[in-house]
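Q: Hi! First time asking for a complex rather than a single chain. Here are the components, and I think there are two in total. Is that enough to go on?
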Amino acid sequence: MKKQSMTPLVIFGLLVILLVGGLINAKYIRDVPSPLIDKPVPKFSLPTVEDQKQMFSSEELKGQVSLVNIWASWCVSCRAEHDILNYAARLGVKIYGINYKDEISDARQWLQVRGNPYVKSAHDLEGRIGIDWGVYGVPETFVIDKKGMIRYKHTGPVYRDDLDKKILPLIKELEAE
Amino acid sequence: MKHTLLMTIALILFSLVSLQVQAGPRGAPKEPIVFENTQVENDYLELSEELRCLVCQNQNLIDSNADLAGDLRREVAKMLKQGKNKEQVKDFMVDRYGDFVLYDPPFKAQTLLLWAGPFVLMFWGLFAMLKKIKSDKAENSAESLELSEQEKEKLQAILKNK
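A: Yes, that's all I need. Here is the structure of the assembled complex.
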């Protein structure tokens, strides 16, 4: 057998590896890498869902490790992760919400019916703050360190596995910093 | 029979109503975007073609009907009206969504393969093709077209049998 005749086979093999790898990773393809990692949280000050006279400002995110969760009552996958957030809150994780493009009455009803895991939720009616956070698909969850820097972004619903294997260990690590 | 028909219509109407309830994000009412300055409008149209909609990732802002695309279009229009130039608007988007938001990604270390890859493949293909042509030529000229003794005998045998 000539040496040259092996080349197509080798190329074919490499292509198979590349394409099969792509298929296996397909579920991550929608994830757009966030340029906000290791940057300070975008500044905002919005009325809270719970009380429109009260404000929630990005300054409050400094001095502690916390999660910021972007949610909405119209968002179907938010339903999937809500119990996980409730569970995390019971474990003592500080979760702040940004309620994205929602009617205040719908948002309040959601919290009443499904439980409120949030320390407080900002009411971003027009979605302007969402743009600053680079939100492109609700739900999204950010891990914020003590200095108020974004350290991790999770796009899509947080499942038990994501919480146990990624988010909780990271929180522990950041708390030691 | 009539009963079934009525039921069907009622069912369709009901599902339409519940679909309405299910519909996407709510929020501030959407005003059409109006420009007084044609230069600004042109900039807006160009940017809306160059920026990607993050929700439906194979569409640009102007093609997309996604709610977020509408918000981003309004944001682009607002910034241009405030007198910001196209580069500033692009930087704003890249700061939030990364290079991915640009349909025309910048040339840098991370995107080197993206930009150079096709050319590398093309030159590699050309090179392989030329090599092949050359070796074929060499083979043809080296191997004489005359038949060997063995082949001559074979040929004679075939002709005789005929």
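A: Residues 19-23 of chain B have pLDDT under 50 and may be disordered. Let me know if you'd like any chain examined more closely.
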